[in-house]
Design goal:
The chain is α/β, with parallel strands linked by helices. It is built from 10 helices and 7 strands. It has one domain: Rossmann fold, CATH 3.40.50.150. The longest helix is centred in the first third of the chain and has 16 residues. The chain is globular, with a radius of gyration of 17 Å.
């Protein structure tokens, strides 16, 4: 019987994802689209780059000039540390990249304050996260175990975004609240630190129909590939169907 995530170690979970990545073409196609978008907004990509929460190490296969890191020790990761404790010198990195990481952090605003210090002037944080649109919110509730909690006071630095101390606990609503729902408040609060240089909603049908990392394809890979092409011209529907959001923050 296949182990459930609650029954396996964090390392085993990431190793499973690494094997799924190797075997499942549809998930590689989808994430390579994300990676292409991310690389488009890198500031000085040939300089000093850090990925936080690298997990199964997939982004570094696409973009080699980056230090991969994770809270879980894995032999395919360059550095192991907790993203809440960024012990780097100030003005070190040109870019910090995060795929599905921000919603796992207990104190996202304190984290951004710390990231500000280690970024070079005009350095960027590139963030890909879940997004609960009208349609995707239904699918997330039915098939995805991680919650969206829009009731927390996301701007209160004295509270945690969620209570559990597990590295895989989460609140998937964090980025949606910071950069979309309460964007004006975020921009006012961080007016002396960051500009939002780009934000977009992504992933309408191909992502859920791929089954993600946890489920089998609901469509043949050839049709997933076709959907990815069609979605590039369907942005008018993004607020109804988006499953993902992408944000690029630049240090002032």
């Amino acid at each position: 019987m296949k182990k459930q995530y609650s029954d396996i170690s964090d390392y085993e979970r990431l190793a499973q994802h690494k094997e799924i990545w190797r075997q499942k073409e549809s998930i590689r196609l989808i994430y390579n689209d994300y990676y292409e978008l991310c690389c488009k907004y890198l500031q000085k990509p040939n300089k000093y780059n850090l990925e936080l929460g690298s997990g199964s190490g997939n982004f570094k296969e696409y973009f080699e000039n980056i230090i991969s890191s994770d809270i879980v020790f894995c032999e395919w990761i360059d550095v192991c540390f907790d993203a809440h404790n960024l012990s780097f010198k100030n003005n070190t990195f040109d870019n910090i990249v995060m795929f599905d990481v921000l919603h796992h952090l207990k104190q996202p605003l304190i984290f951004l304050d710390n990231v500000y210090n280690i970024l070079k002037p005009r350095g960027r944080i590139l963030i890909l996260e879940p997004y609960a649109s009208f349609f995707s919110n239904i699918i997330f509730k039915l098939f995805h175990p991680e919650p969206f909690d829009f009731d927390i006071d996301i701007f209160n630095k004295n509270i945690s975004a969620f209570a559990s101390k597990s590295a895989f606990s989460s609140n998937q609503a964090i980025s949606q609240m910071l950069f979309f729902k309460y964007r004006e408040k975020f921009e006012k609060l961080y007016s002396d630190k960051f500009n939002i240089v780009f934000s977009e909603l992504l992933s309408f049908f191909a992502y859920p129909l791929s089954g993600g990392f946890e489920n089998k394809n609901l469509l043949p890979t050839s049709l997933i590939k076709l959907l990815l092409k069609l979605e590039k011209n369907m942005t008018v529907f993004k607020y109804l169907f988006a499953f993902r959001c992408f944000v690029a923050l630049e240090k002032k």
